[in-house]
Sequence to fold (259 residues):
Amino acid sequence: MSLFYYTNTMKILIASVTLNALNSLTIIVEKLRNALPHNCVLCDNQTEHFHNHLCQICRNDLPLPQYLCLGCAIPLVHQQPFCGQCQKSPPRYKLITCAGYVAPLKQLISSLKYKENQIIARELALHLAKRVKHLIDNNQLATPQYLIPVPLHKKRLQQRGYNQAALIADALASHLNIPVLDCTTRILNTTTQTELNAAERRANLRDAFKLVDDISGNIVAIIDDVYTTGATMHELAKTLECKHQLQIQCWSIVRTNIE
Ligand SMILES: [Zn+2]
Ligand SMILES: [Zn+2]
Fold:
């Protein structure tokens, strides 16, 4: 046996032993972590796995009305793509949400945004992914090539420390296997929109975003946590469309004003 052959064989053997040792160690750490408490953020019962932040009962109880209008997300009695109003004046973008701004989604979003409970993004994204998968599987929605989170202004990002829409987009990306594209930035630090009506929100957000990277696909989904009047997502869509021919979808965890 030549020295060269012997050295290479030893290298392969050591790499294989190291990999096996690392895999065994990972399994042990996972088992140990799973033996420690990991409670459901809603009912405080132990969840099935420490990666899960809701127990299976609370997950199954999250509101997910069977039929929602694909234009305005209003609940529908029968399976049909659009409500009467959206059939009369077809919306520019499809709107995909889990449900209205109802408990416990309302509390989970508030906890994600204002209590630094970043782990909630994964559960919210998982819930929205259920709706998206169902629509894609039933040919009611085209699969987007990219997910584009609504960006926060850098000052707001510094205050909060994270962008909740980006966290949701990242989690959706792993649930749906669709990449996130960070191609926009927010150049206007808009004041809080809570007290503004639809027209004021549109005016408040005019030219708030800027495209900083090219988009190679032609179908994209904009991701946000809450859809109220649509002013934010529509302004971002306008920014994306200024350079590209795109089919844009708006995805948010909930839509307000619909209960
Ligand atoms: Zn629970
Ligand atoms: Zn509608």
Summary: Residues 40, 42-43, 45, 54-55, 57-58 surround zinc ion (ligand 1) (CB under 6 Å). The chain has two domains: 1-36, 68-255. The CA atoms of residues 142 and 194 lie 32 Å apart. The beta strands are 94-96, 99-100, 146-149, 184-186, 209-211, 219-227, 247-255.
